[in-house]
Amino acid sequence: MELRFNEAEIAFRQEVRDFIAKELPKETHERMLAGKSPTKQMVVDWQRKLNAKGWAVPEWPVEWGGPGWTLGQRYIFREELQQAPAPQPLAFNTNMCGPVIAEFGTEEQKKRFLPRMANLDDWWCQGFSEPGAGSDLAGLKTRAVREGDHYVVNGQKTWTTLAQHADWIFLLVRTDPNAKKQEGISFLLCDMKTPGITVRPIITIEGGHEVNEVFLDDVKVPVENLVGEENRGWDCAKFLLGNERFGQARVGASRERIRRLKRIASTESMDGGQPLMQDPDFARKVTEIEVELKALEMTVMRVIATESKRKDKKPDPATSVLKIKGTEIQQMCSELLMKAAGPYAWVDGDPEAEGSNDIDVAPDWAFGLAGVYFNWRKQSIYGGSNEIQRNIMAKAFLGL
Amino acid sequence: MELRFNEAEIAFRQEVRDFIAKELPKETHERMLAGKSPTKQMVVDWQRKLNAKGWAVPEWPVEWGGPGWTLGQRYIFREELQQAPAPQPLAFNTNMCGPVIAEFGTEEQKKRFLPRMANLDDWWCQGFSEPGAGSDLAGLKTRAVREGDHYVVNGQKTWTTLAQHADWIFLLVRTDPNAKKQEGISFLLCDMKTPGITVRPIITIEGGHEVNEVFLDDVKVPVENLVGEENRGWDCAKFLLGNERFGQARVGASRERIRRLKRIASTESMDGGQPLMQDPDFARKVTEIEVELKALEMTVMRVIATESKRKDKKPDPATSVLKIKGTEIQQMCSELLMKAAGPYAWVDGDPEAEGSNDIDVAPDWAFGLAGVYFNWRKQSIYGGSNEIQRNIMAKAFLGL
Amino acid sequence: MDFDLTEEQRLLQDSVARLLGDKYGFEQRKGYMKSPEGWSREIWAQYAELGLLGLPFAEDEGGFGGGHVETMLVAEQLGKAIALEPWIPTVVIGGGFLRAGASAELRAELVPQIAAGELMLAFAQTERQSRYDLNDVATTAKKDGSGWVISGRKGMVIHGDSAGKLVVTARTAGGQRDHKGIGVFLVDAKDPGVTRRGYRTVDGQRAAEVEFANARAEAVLGNPEDGLPLVDQVVDETIVALAAEAVGCMQVAHDMTIDYMKTRKQFDRPIGSFQALQHRAADMLVQLEQARSMSYFAAMGVEERDPAERRKNMASVKAQIGRSARFVGQQSIQLHGGIAMTVEYACGHYFKRLTVNDAMFGDADYWVRFLANSGGLVAAA
Amino acid sequence: MDFDLTEEQRLLQDSVARLLGDKYGFEQRKGYMKSPEGWSREIWAQYAELGLLGLPFAEDEGGFGGGHVETMLVAEQLGKAIALEPWIPTVVIGGGFLRAGASAELRAELVPQIAAGELMLAFAQTERQSRYDLNDVATTAKKDGSGWVISGRKGMVIHGDSAGKLVVTARTAGGQRDHKGIGVFLVDAKDPGVTRRGYRTVDGQRAAEVEFANARAEAVLGNPEDGLPLVDQVVDETIVALAAEAVGCMQVAHDMTIDYMKTRKQFDRPIGSFQALQHRAADMLVQLEQARSMSYFAAMGVEERDPAERRKNMASVKAQIGRSARFVGQQSIQLHGGIAMTVEYACGHYFKRLTVNDAMFGDADYWVRFLANSGGLVAAA
Predict the structure, then answer these.
(1) ipTM
(2) CATH number, domain C229-373, options 1.10.10.10, 3.40.30.10, 1.20.140.10, 3.40.630.30
């Protein structure tokens, strides 16, 4: 039992840290330090730098550009990016679709898609959820009917994050309407320029445009873009969702936010003319989050250690803990940031939009913080809602 | 809309308060002030005083000794007793079995039982729960078979509070094993001296003896002791449980405990040499309970106001709130009292027992407080667990 | 103790409910929000017609003679519609200052204008550094002849952009955080010394940044050397309205959630059939009922004569309402799932208003701390 | 980063688990509790045989050479059995003081006795007024020739009644709450100046009130003028054991609850089929896993060289463990229902130990406040 990172890992962390310090564009860093998402171009530029370094696709096999890292290194890498903060490799490409193609795809598919994915030559988005299939993903209704060497796809996807940027979409579609729910589903890759695709923005409650509806109207997808076997797409989906959950702890990101929160609450003058960190209740709440985050960090380590040694693909009981606690902590951070801003959190406007704080009501650090709090309520809903996680724990791990 | 007590009610409150101040024996008062239950004799003596005054059975019809109070007066009366603190009229007699007999009993039963109940000449206990019938009370299995002018009862009751003091027990028994669950149940009155009854103490986790198992082995109950119709006992049970829930808010009792807690935490020197009320977290917790209690008090008022005007016997949606919040507040009070005592809460021993703090480790105010905390976990379990309350709310009021 | 409404109160409640039912559907509300002022003059005129704008003023001054219960009833209905109009700033806050701090002459001049819907008021109190502390006032008021001139910057002045007159707190003496030396002044929004920049708040209301550069006060409200007790009183009265607004919001958010749970299907059954979600809905109801109780208590507790006791009452109201609002708001989103995250769906807007409502004049944490520092509600002895 | 046990560690863990599995069933435990000492000398001898009593001492001093991980492994197993023996006071606390504060000669004398199970130690630290503050020491130590004599009263001395020697904090200089001027002394329990009264604690352990009337110290542990850093260090090491004990208790409480949910039927189905209860069980598991993580962190974080940082680490451990223990303990009772309220059923005993475990050396609230006042775990800059 060795409960510390070893020297190689510590050296690796330093290497990542140095690389970020040297290579991350100042503009990108400052924008993210202020709590805003990087722009599309910033994400693309950074991923290409990472790709040039050989670090863009930590989860992929070495032959397709993966760096051959241990799970520990992957964790360190992500944590350092998150807490820098720096953009992460685009999840749709590198964590979701890429690993699926690498695992289930044909050699041709790998050659065609993976290098462009890694270099973010193509921006991918995820076509899973539907209006009637949220928590119950397998209830999806989008139909794909094979006609010659094409599938003709009809249906509607929703909550499609950053579809407005996307060149390609990976889709779950129903290819056998008579099979049982989770059977009869297939995994397709689809060029967003294909006729019949319409993207409609969904504006979320804080005013931001991050997610979309994607309408598919007689969209022709070549049969060669089927990943894995027809009607076995659920295997791809499960494989992908397993990877996703693993990253939902986002310890580094929360640490970065707590750091920002404490910076604000230690310097800005608040009620009674004192910094808010002097308020015992506020300080207690921040401290409780710090404690939970430390515990979560150790839980992530445990999951990594377990997974590293496991042969089967069955996830650790602790992975649902990562999702539940990870999102609770992030939501609490967003709430405390909003509270720190007091009335200045209330100015309306998408904090991501350019020039949105031109009115100069709130200090820059406070602008849009209520919006972020509103927006982050999604975290306990998406990626398998926290209620679904509890179902999983009760059934799969507790046997109830 | 008049959100205050009227002058008559204020005068009534003063009358109750004066009576308690004048008539409550000093020994009883001091024992209760120290957080201990009154002894059997104290309860009997006090109830007889109340009965002499005409106040022992507020819920009963006037012809059977009820004082004819409004719901508001009843509430004031209970609240004053709780916060004095003074013993309440024995619930098994006055709130549970008495009202059932008054509502469903024969004239003969009323004459025979009610006056002795009111004067606590007989101490009653409740034979409802069984080992296999807790939350699912209607799943009870104790059988009563009619043989001539007797029922022969066999089975086992549990959680029978203060059965060790009791002269009589009121029982739910199954008289028709073939009927649907809630049908086929009858309500019987049974002398505890009847052969075949064995009372076995259940010692609860803190070491106290408050509840018992009651074994019924060929116990003969005269048919004249059936209340209401045979196989219609569930009506009696529902009627009784409705009354019970109404009293579970226990606002006055919680107020008395908060007062005690604040007295202790304001005077005893704690961490850092300061009184614990100077600790911001402790003070916050106490304050939050005070706020919830104030809200609960107003909720009780609303229920009283609604019930006073209602013709049907259907309870207000707020009655489940009374149970849930009332018990949460009481449990939190017990937890904060334990916390206030620090290490001195840990001395083992039933705080109710005589001489139990002879070791003189803890100050008297602190002795047994961990035990009280442990014991009070029962509050969210009994009287319809808080989970059952949520089921009721979801189904009966929200229509889910 | 009687929670029944009088005939008059029921009429008032029903008439507001009817108006909002007709004219304040979620789609209609969107239209009002998109208008240049961000709310509806037409609706405002109808409020005037119903007597809502003169509600708290004496009948012989042109008002409706309503008390705190009436304020509560109206505010709850407005909360149900998440109404956008400047009713609380004008009628409850502005009206409160006029009733308690203005001369009879001033009231005779202004009340009819307010009651007729011609004059809106706003409360210029918050400053960039002040957060929720009513005594933290850097804006100054200086004697100038027989009157006063105001200089300084006020922020987050709710509905400050449409107000005809501003109620402004300004320091006449003492240091920035002294309790003494604060005055309350009435300033015409068109005064050359006043500059306003309006914007929208996250809950769909309007607000303004207001700069005062030697702006002339039209009137002093109360004692210019010791106006904080007046401010405290009016804020306490405002809490009655805020609490009721929150209860209205929570009621609708809860109702919408229950309805959605009955219709939305996942795993081939209504999600309302899942016990874990049922219990959450029950917990929301517990919070809602506790909040409603405290809204009633607000209407009662604000009449306490001793200002310190009154403030403790209102602190407990803010504490419970804020806690309930947070839980009901968050859970209404969670139980809906993604749909409630979209701006097109009403539920999120209730959540947003509830969030701001909690924080108005200090959030639950602020008032729990205040109450704890003030000895709480239950005396130890 | 590697959470696998070494072969030796696995052997240690397994041997303790096997012993307790054989000899520490709930009924057997009742028997031990009823014995005059309240725990089992027989079991104690077997601990000695397994090397548990010499665990943290150097091998050349007669010990086992175990580190914090070994302490954690043993304590978790003892927690699973809610063992009653004075292992933590003797081996972890007493042992800690000997390792860090005793001369080699003293260790050479005592370690073999401890390892053989012949000598028990107890930590006489708490005073009636001191609560959780380690610096609040009114008991005095006065120079007397070349030695020291101790006077004062210590309470809640865990296993103080069976201890052969007492580790006592006493003031050598300064005022009652000064951080400097505290010494740590070893006093023979049979010294004529020592009077003990033993009793049971709510979680089934033994404790004693101990009066010192010019009791002679056999040895000084560490610096008699500045012993608080030593006390802090040993308490921090003890937190490793307490955290692991709590995890062991939680694990069993959780397992028992899940088992019960699978077998107990109400409404004609196992109560474990009710989703609301399933989610509660899942939440318990979340708390248990977070606690287990912090138990590992304890074994790591206690090795931090900077005492201030080390203490912050341990504060965070106590905070998480305490919060988890409260939730898991309370919910294990709630999900069982009435059965777990009876003294005959094991679950309540885990709840009681968890409650006391949380409060030992300060409960979660105490340590959250400490951590907040110390700047927390994450640096702002």
Answers:
(1) 0.96
(2) 1.20.140.10
